[in-house]
Design goal:
It is a single chain. The chain has about 110 residues and is an all-beta fold. The strands form 2 sheets. A 6-stranded mixed beta sheet has the order 2-10-9-4-5-6, with no helix packed on it. Strands 1-3-8-7 form a 4-stranded antiparallel beta sheet, with no helix packed on it. β4 and β5 form a beta hairpin. The radius of gyration is 13 Å and the shape is globular.
Length: about 110
Amino acid sequence: QVQLVESGGGLVQPGGSLSVSCAASGIRISIYAMGWYRQSPGKQRELVASITSGGSTNYADSVKGRFTISRDNAKNTVYLQMNSLEPKDTAVYYCNVRYTGFWGQGTQVTVSS
């Protein structure tokens, strides 16, 4: 059974940093592209960042230069480092094995003073 478990969300002040993790089990993520998505109330889920099996990364324009996606295949884990956070980054962040139906349960990130 495939499971993706996100952790590390929370409340942070504008301008602050936060790192979220996605630990996978039941699947070896090393051969898959992985993605971080986010969804805020009333909006569609959007792709924030992705990383290929070879380590190439891609980012939404709204987070480019502020967010960094990385992976540790030995730990079967994907990370999203978020810097210079803004209130508009407030959302539930989801991990996904790209091009599959495997999703995590999400972790809430709230940026507020």
